[in-house]
Amino acid sequence: MQTEHILENLPTLETKRILLRKVAQSDAEAMYAYGSDPAVSQFVVWSPHQSIDDTQQFLDIILSLYESNQAVFWGIELKEEKRLIGTINYVSWQQKHHVGEIGYVIGRPYWHKGYMSEAVKEVIRFGFERMELERIEAKCLVDNEGSERVMQKAGMQYEGTMRKRMYIKGTQHDLKLYSIIREEFVSGR
Prior knowledge:
With 189 residues, the protein is of the alpha+beta class.
């Protein structure tokens, strides 16, 4: 499959417990529920949503990116609840170099239940099988133990800590870098 088609028609992905699908305007309330939680936004670049309008503005950006074929961005829907519980996406995709970086967020009631690890594994599979990637990476703030565990459970390997790598919410932060390469994915290591 040619990679351009992925952006033209981003598929829905399915695992045992979740659907990874395009977000929609109808997801605003569910997205606001976790987007407004300070605990959820503690380790990400964005601040808690102050109103449903903040969430709506974010959704408008994503929907616009879908329309212009510029987003590899899924909502995470819990099948059991038929409700959006988080998002996962390729925050960058360097097609020339066959490298992608994933980012993700999930509502606090769904922490420590394996949903995000399930989503990350499926997005990694999609990246290698459909996006022609050779390397997939993810980063987290050094204090974000939950995100680090997700990367480990998904088979990603720790590569090191990048010192003072990102300026977030008024402070320079160190980031841990994890990755998985195609050979590791194929061999199941």
